[in-house]
Amino acid sequence: MAYFLFIDESGQDHHDSPYEVLAGVSIKDEDLWNLIKSIHDLEISCFGKKYRDDKNEIKARKFLKKKTFRLASQMPPIPVIDRTENARKALGPSLPVTKLGLTALAQAKLDYAKQIFELCIRFRCKVFASIIADPGTIPDDNNMLRKDYVYLFERFYYFLEDKKDQMQGIVVFDELDKSASHLVLSQMDRYFKSTLKGRTRSALIIPEPFFVHSDLTTGIQIVDFIAYILSWNFRAGKLDKACREELNTYLDLLKSMRYITSRQIGDVQNHTIWSIVIV
Fold it and tell me: How many CB atoms lie under 10 A from the CB of residue 184?
């Protein structure tokens, strides 16, 4: 028995997103296929077809950008059956684009994102993340696993440890370019083999990750939405940049998927530890 931890990043280009986020979503192996099937069914019910069939990519920055909200609000909510049919037509390659079609497609995108999170809650998924408040505080050392990765794996390890049944953790990354993937592999190898904490955590987390294509892997598509929402709207401690109010509904759903535990830290017996940490 195992938990998959699908991992993706947001804001690494320091261009559009306010904060750099490393996010993960844990899904139990026995729930994974049922969740994937439910999301595939959701795709059909929202768009009348597989959105990806026309070489469209499901990405949070496309589904949840400000323009989508603007288009969705230019007409009252469209009944689901009519919305789905018009969204399907809007995705077609030959039909003229209409105001109704654009509105239906935008409303379908927003509803799709919301229902993905509702499905994750139903299937008991948990959200993990490291949010970097100041990139200047992260040492640039290619020999060491970055602090945000260490904190993410620490939280995932605590989650697995609390299961008390030796559940293994399997890490799945969105594929990077080959050199970046090799770098992460070597850093993880060094951390899990050469540090005391890493060796301890390798008892529950398999240190060698899988790399997959995001447009082909549903778990990565889920965590892409999670990382995007956290970057734009999760605020605590040093995180004080402006939020997007229209994303608060999605953030509330994500907050309900956080994991909370406690450990002895120094002299503190029951130090509270959240699965989302600010680095």
Answer: 18
**What residue segments make up the domains of the chain, in order of their start?**
2-278
Number of helices (H) and strands (E), helices first, in the chain?
Answer: 10, 8
Q: What token pair was written down for 211?
A: 């790399």
Strands 126-132 and 20-28: antiparallel
| Euclidean distance between CA atoms 225 and 242, whole angstroms | 19
Report the amino acid identity of residue 61. R
Give the C-alpha separation, 168 to 112, whole Å: 31
- Six token digits for residue 139: 């040492």
Cβ atoms within 10 A of the Cβ of 91, count? 19
CA distance 269 to 266: 8
Eight-state DSSP code of residue 258:
B
**SS3 assignment, position 270:** strand
Q: Do residues 88 and 49 make contact, with C-beta atoms less than 8 angstroms apart?
A: yes
* From the candidate CATH numbers 1.10.3470, 3.30.420, 2.40.50, 1.20.1740, the one assigned to the domain spanning 2-278: 3.30.420
Q: How confident is the model over 149-188, as pLDDT tens digits?
A: 999 999 999 999 999 877 899 999 998 777 888 899 999 9
The reply to whether the predicted model has a pTM over 0.90 is yes
Which residues are CB-neighbours of 208 under 8 A, at least 6 positions away?
A: 185, 188, 189
Count how many residues are written for the chain.
279
Q: Distance (Å, rounded) from C-alpha 97 to C-alpha 89?
A: 8
